[in-house]
Amino acid sequence: MLENLHVDDSIQLERHGSILTLWLNRPESRNAMSLKMVNAIQQVFADLADDTSIRTVILRGQGGHFCAGGDIKDMAALRVEATSVGSLQPYVDFNRRFGAMIEQVDQAPQTVVAVLEGAVLGGGFGLACVSDVAICRDNAQFGLPETGLGVLPAQIAPFVVKRIGLTQARRLALLGVRFNGREALQVGVVHEVVNDAAELEQTLQATIEHIKRAAPLASRATKALLHRTLNEPLESLLDDAAQQFAQAVGGAEGQEGTMAFIQKRLPNWTEQ
Fold first, then answer.
1. How far apart are the C-alpha atoms of 220 and 242, rounded to whole Å?
2. How far is CA 242 from CA 29, 94, 179, in A?
3. CATH code of the domain covering residue 45
4. Which of 212, 245, 263 is at the close of a domain?
5. 192 plus 237 within the same structural domain
6. Helix count (H) and strand count (E) of the chain?
7. How far apart are CA 73 and CA 60, in angstroms?
8. What is the separation of C-alpha 211 from the centre of its chain, rounded to a whole number of angstroms?
9. Which residue range is the domain that position 240 belongs to?
């Protein structure tokens, strides 16, 4: 369980009831994503996969930045390793590990909230694109700088396209332009933009309250259903969704939700 999980100090975990905050914790490098950080995030989300006691995971960065992308020091170490083995495989393995981590966050059954400040670049941009709710400061700096460095946003690209569509993804990835929170809202990367730190915290708390009003199991099932809409035939998907709906109506959450509505009170899961 999460309480017994020992993770690298590149991240910090902070739990309040059903809310878990995962802090990216390399402020000296604007939370650049090292292999250790990638592995630590994977550990956490693997542990959370079947943990129904955690309803929300909040992704944040220490030191006023979310994430400035991949760690250049790791790339230098990979270059040495690739030279020593005479193969590009170390680069392949490193890059694919990052993609696996992004996919884990994307598929997490919990509601994932990204709180975006400062640098939201490269891998950090990709991580923002797999959040369910993204809140950012107006002066945050977004971008996909990979092509300007002679590389590709290889593992990030599919998730960026799903988030904002192919037309916008092409412009941002091929030009490598930087843009602020207001434009991030316009293109669909984020859902809300705030003007200062106090408003950021207020908006986050309001978001958490909304999440708590949704039934925990119904939220997990809904998120899974939404993901399936991208890949499955419509008729069979709707047939299965009808079965899930029937089970939910007759289940404990459906009954509690109905009674709470009739009795004009909040359902019991809002207290969790």
1. 16
2. 49, 41, 42
3. 3.90.226.10
4. 212
5. no
6. 11, 8
7. 22
8. 15
9. 215-271
Residues 104 and 221 in one domain: no
Using DSSP, state whether 113 is helix, strand or coil: strand
Residue with the two structure tokens 């309803």: 55
136 forms beta bridges with 116, 193
> Using CB atoms within 10 A of its CB, is residue 234 exposed (0-12), middle (13-18) or buried (19+)?
exposed
Split the chain (272 residues) into runs of 10 and give each run's mean pLDDT: 70 97 97 95 97 97 96 85 92 94 98 98 97 97 95 96 98 96 98 97 97 96 96 96 96 94 94 79
Ramachandran quadrant class, 59 (left: phi over 0; alpha: psi -120 to 50; beta: rest): beta
Handedness of CA 33, 34, 36, 38 (dihedral sign): positive
Would you state the structure tokens that stand for residue 94, as one six-digit string? 């490193």
Specify the residue for token string 């949704």.
Answer: 214
CB 41 within 8 A of CB 22: yes
